[in-house]
Amino acid sequence: MTTVMDRPAASAGHTASRKPLIERLNIVTALVLGAVSSVVVWQLALKLLPQDADTAFFFNREDKIMLLALIAWFVGFMTGIGALIGPFRWLMGKDLNHDENMFLAGKEQGVKRYFRYTTDHKVVGIQYLVITIIIFLVGGILAMLIRTNLGHAQGGWIEPQTYNAIVGWHGIIMIVATIIMVTGPFGNFIMPIMIGARDMAFPRLNALSFWLIVAAVPPVFISFFTGGITTGWSAYNPLASQSALGMNGYIAFICIFAISTMVAGANITTTVVKMRAKGMTWNRTPIFIYGVVASVALALPAFPVFFLSQIMSGLDRAFATSFYNVAGGGSGWLYENLFWIMGHPEVYVILIPSVAALMEMAPVFTRRPLFSFNLAIMGIAGISGLSVLVWAHHMYISGWAPLLNAPFMLTTELISIPTGMLFLVLIGTLWRGRLWMTMPLMSIFALLWNFMIGGITGIYLSDVPADAFLHGSMYVTAHFHYTLMGAGLTGALASLVYWFPKMTGRMFDKTLSWVSFWLVQIGFNVAFMGMFMVGLAGQPRRVESYAEIFNKGNLVTTIGAYTIMAGMLVLLHGVISSWRSGVKAPMNPWQAKTLEWTVANPVPLENFETLPVITSDPYGYGKAQS
């Protein structure tokens, strides 16, 4: 029998209907409190920081004011969304009670839980999916502005500085989108169910990782209206220290996002290591789990380095320190090393979960066991290990430590060996399989094609003499997109179609998935083959006008880009229409063997009424059932 004694009776000064603070906080209160906090701090800083002062503390007054306002935005937003309630209550010696924890989990709240600080991993997964789509939409619009401007040799209607800002903004937004596109939605929604857990190890940290990303978005948008990111997405110093106020938005964006990746990485690792179902030994753990864990294992050491590089950049801007200023004893090479120590593992933070997701789907749509599970693990481990030893191949032309060029060239070329292992696993699984020709299966073929081109073209860039010719050209941009978009995004889109039924309870429209697939893949190959051509002919990247000799190749690339845009719009339409009115999905539409397909639609709050016990691996297709 349920009683009403769990909560104290309303006092004379309070009405019975008044909600406690934890129930009144949502995205609206977060945005309002964040905006008010930043405006208040901005105005106070304007009054308290003198305009004329001789001490170093008061140099670069505008940078100090903007950084203080961005910090105030961050603190205000996180307070307004409710992220600080749990820690504050813990410090006061009174943690949240059961009812409050159930409220945080979003129990019986309907759609409202998606706009609150909700700890249920399934809600967080959907939140990640939506914000990833929004970020891709913004980044795609910026890409189309770039390609439209480059449709003519003399440039278009965008003046050079604005064009540079759009390129920088597009770059960093798309990098963030690709980092979270698999581990965010599917690592949160699917992974705990796949390992037989009821939730993540640290549910509050799970919610925190998402809302940190939301808090990071406004600073990078504000940067566009305060001078922009005119240095390219890498924001090399000391150039970044001398750039417009918009660079402060970039610094805040990266710092907040880095905290999000660190929090998410620790949470995912702990969940997989400590909360796998009974009997799920490491050789019975699905390959997708290995991909997610390898991704966050790379992010955990890499992103703190990036975080610290931006802290030093902010200090150089606001307090005239000299971490990167040669005149003050600093070095621009310090920033390059810090950036690329993050920047190259980050490529595999993006790639590994996408490839692992496709390896997860390969047995389902071939009705064969995964070919050489151990070889797949060795490939993932080899890529992860070598990826932290190759960063300086981006710096051949910088003049830093030329004696190290040969060792870095060797480690870069060696990474093709574990990559080849993953190719063999996919090809071996496809070989003589009973192929079920779905969009996710066709994505495996697309990955093999695109990643082969991305990998082979990357070998040329790893070679010092060849890189001396190709560095800074459109060839590099094409290679980069073949790797991250051709391989990474292809896996992410296949994951969307594959796990859409479990996440939404609806089947993704089959026709729209195929139309989107072919438009994106054809447009992608047309666009970036054209970019390879102009890059080999000598066209530099990050320029808003070019010689007439490159006109035809750029026109081809622009046509391909518009085809990609059409395909992505079809995909967006498919997501919205299928989610609203698609065919209701059965519990296991693909007849797969992993645990996420054993729970009902919609997935219950705690996933499993009774925790499962694992007695075999998840790839027993074609084997006699015991």
TrEMBL record:
One of its GO terms (molecular function) is heme binding. Keywords: Membrane, Transmembrane, Transmembrane helix. It holds the Pfam family COX1. InterPro entries: Cyt_c_oxase-like_su1_dom, Cyt_c_oxase-like_su1_sf, Cyt_C_Oxase_1. GO terms for cellular component: membrane. PROSITE patterns: COX1. Residues 113-615 form the Cytochrome oxidase subunit I profile domain. The chain crosses the membrane at residues 25-45, 65-85, 123-146, 166-187, 208-230, 250-275, 287-307, 338-359, 371-394, 414-431, 443-462, 482-500, 512-535, 555-576. One of its GO terms (biological process) is respiratory electron transport chain. SUPFAM superfamilies: Cytochrome c oxidase subunit I-like. This is Unannotated protein. It comes from freshwater metagenome.
